[in-house]
Amino acid sequence: MTLAIFLFISIILVGIQTAIPFLVKRTIVFGITVPEKHIQDEKLLSYKKNYTLLVSLLSIIVLAGYVFWALVSNPGEEQTVLIGTFIQFGIILFSLSLYFYFHGKTLQLKKNQNWMENLKQVKVSDLSVRSQDEMLPWYLFLLPMIMTIGVIGYTIFQYDLLPEQIPTHWGINGEADAFTEKTPLSAILMPLTLLAMQIMYLGINIGKNKSGIKLSATGTNASRIRQLTLRKYSSWLMFGVSLLLTILFSFFQLTAIHPDLFAGTAMMTTPIIFLVIILAATIAFAVKVGRSDKHPVGEVDEEITDYDDDLHWKGGLFYFNRNDPSIFVEKRFGVGWTINFGNPIGYLIVIVPLVVVLVLSFL
Questions:
Q1: For the packed helices 264-290 and 2-19, what is the interaxial angle rounded to 10 degrees?
Q2: Residue 146 and residue 294 in one domain
Q3: Which residues of the chain have pLDDT under 50?
Q4: Of the candidates 242, 47, 267, which has an alpha carbon nearest to the alpha carbon of residue 171?
Q5: Is 32 within 8 Å of 113 (Cβ atoms)?
Q6: Reduced to 3 states, what is the DSSP secondary structure of residue 155?
Q7: Which of residues 89, 117, 145 is at a domain's end?
Q8: Distance CA 248, CA 97 (A)
Q9: CB burial class (10 A; 0-12, 13-18, 19+) of residue 187?
Q10: Rounded CA gap, 73 and 42, in Å?
């Protein structure tokens, strides 16, 4: 079972990593702004294909070796998890290394061929697009928080029913494999950690809602569709993850209070079902957003180009722009959002809740 789960996660990971160059904004190639008339350049297309081929080829070889090793040596669960985790991180690091390689190649190609020469750089604003925004309202994110507060209250009320050793971690088989001594704080540590995460999700949703909707000068309609799709479905995905995490954490909290409430099968299958739903939703989100601007509506003016803000992107991954009031901006490599590191509010929204979670974990 452990091998199957890690193999399933790894295959999903490889699929997403190999598809990323084809899911980002059509005028962004390996984190570099490319004028509309050059996005079909043969070298750029070869960079994308080579990246995909190398990541998929290495991943197939490594995963095949992982499966062969597991079947032949019959390792224990802990060793299978350790090696599987190492392989997943290895795939991510390899794909990231390739990204930086092709990022440099793309940047050099753009400079050598003077793609921005004689093109007018334009920024586009559309005040009416806000009326089409379908992001979920912030108050819906209070629902999981209310559920969590209810679980905290119930735990305090049923404190005497908790065992002297409270479970803090569960293995692949659904059985608790790590414990801590019962105290008033440790009894509600799990839902408190969840509450901190939910506050972060709420802050991110508010931050994304207040961030600017950036349209492309050369494909305004297509970029409008992408931005609205990204904003809508990312809020749905985050709310779904928050709700599912609430259900999962509440499930484990209730089993600590009432050990006989759920059968052993439920303890094993519930986390797996949760994982499958999250992965499926993530894939659907990435494909939906990735394909939203690949077919521009209307004619494209090749004499203009988007404002070249490559200088604000460090390595095409980290965005620093103090003049941009947006808290979050669309990623240049990957599907989703990243922080505007030039806006300190982003640090507060993401880092403070994470620090709280770490502090609670150490306590």
A1: 10
A2: yes
A3: none
A4: 267
A5: no
A6: helix
A7: 117
A8: 35
A9: buried
A10: 46
43 and 127 housed in the same domain: no
Q: Work out the end-to-end distance of the chain between its first and last CA atoms, rounded to an integer number of angstroms.
A: 33
Confidence at residue 27, expressed as pLDDT on a 0 to 100 scale? 85
> Is 91 in the same domain as 136?
no
Query: How far, in Å, CA of 146 to CA of 211, rounded?
Result: 27
Question: What does the alpha-carbon distance between residue 183 and residue 18 come to, in Å, rounded to a whole number?
Answer: 47
Is residue 39 a contact partner of residue 321, using CB atoms and an 8 Å limit?
A: no
Give the model's pLDDT for residue 42. Answer: 92
pLDDT at 147: 95
Residue 265 half-sphere exposure toward CB, CA atoms < 13 A: 0
- Domain range for 46: 1-117
* Model pLDDT, residue 135: 92
* Residue 162 shares a structural domain with residue 265: yes
pLDDT at 299: 53
Shared domain for 207 and 331, answered yes or no, is yes
Total length of the chain = 363
Rounded Cα distance between 199 and 177, Å, is 28
Residue 162 host element (H or E): none
Tokens 């930086």 appear where?
A: 100
Q: What is the largest CA-CA distance in the chain?
A: 75
Residue-level pLDDT at 297: 53
Count CB-CB contacts under 10 A for residue 225.
18
- My answer on whether 83 and 230 are in the same domain is no
Count of domains observed in the chain: 2
- 176 CB-near residues (< 8 Å, 6+ apart): 167, 168, 169, 170
For residue 257, how far is the Cα from the chain centroid? 32
Does 183 share its domain with 229?
yes
What does pTM read for this prediction? Answer: 0.85
Q: Are 123 and 7 found together in one domain? A: no
